[in-house]
Design goal:
Number of strands: 11
Distance between the termini: 103 Å
Helix content: 25-40%
Largest sheet: 5 strands, mixed
Structural class: alpha+beta
Strand content: 15-25%
Length: 220
């Protein structure tokens, strides 16, 4: 005969609502951790790619600094010296009037063709930069990892402007006279700056938060 005081417990099979909710929460938490980890990895990879882009530019500019003074250097837009002057052997009257101050009348003893004494024009950074990032340029394959577009050159990395992530800042450094309190003066390398002779360049890349990453200082 069964003991009337004996407690009986119902045996349950499977998961109840509390167990199901707990397991669902646990799975969602694990997925969230995995997603956050992957996002952190991708952002870190973009930052590393930005740094490698700057190192690639530094490598190219350093080598160019050694070779661009040689005859026949390509791309010619980045060579040292002056742009070649192409003058017609027989300029028309309008051309002679335009260059009236530089026009030199032909001398019978030398040649019958008029000559234009045009002053030399130094090569500029703008055309050199365009040649580097052109479709077939040596730096065309290096893209901004945050935008997947060609790297833009900006005056400086500014943390107040997050759109600068992945951009590059190029500065020219000029030594001051001996005894000066500041040994070097730096300023953004502008497209109108002359590259006729060798110069010192500082390369800085902008990370995800547009914080500056110092890459290198080199002679170009």
């Amino acid at each position: 005969m069964a003991d009337p005081t004996e407690k009986k417990f119902r045996t349950k099979s499977g998961f109840g609502i509390p167990e199901t909710l707990f397991i669902t929460f646990l799975v969602l938490a694990m997925l969230g951790v995995a997603w956050v980890g992957r996002m952190a990895y991708l952002e870190g990879k973009k930052g590393e790619t930005t740094k490698r882009n700057g190192e690639a530019w530094a490598k190219w500019l350093t080598q160019a600094g050694l070779d661009r003074g040689k005859a026949g250097y390509e791309p010619s837009e980045c060579a040292t010296g002056f742009l070649p002057v192409v003058v017609s052997a027989a300029p028309n009257e309008a051309a002679v009037e335009t260059f009236s101050e530089a026009y030199v009348a032909p001398s019978p003893a030398t040649t019958s063709a008029p000559v234009l004494n045009v002053p030399p024009v130094a090569r500029k950074w703008g055309p050199c930069l365009n040649a580097l990032i052109a479709q077939n340029g040596p730096m065309a394959n290096y893209l901004n990892p945050f935008t997947q577009k060609p790297i833009t050159v900006v005056p400086k990395c500014d943390m107040a402007d997050r759109s600068l992530a992945g951009a590059m800042s190029l500065e020219k450094t000029v030594p001051t006279p001996p005894g000066s309190a500041v040994p070097l003066i730096s300023s953004p390398l502008a497209e109108s700056d002359s590259i006729e002779s060798k110069m010192q360049i500082r390369i800085t890349m902008c990370d995800k938060g547009a914080y500056p990453i110092r890459i290198a200082e080199l002679e170009f």
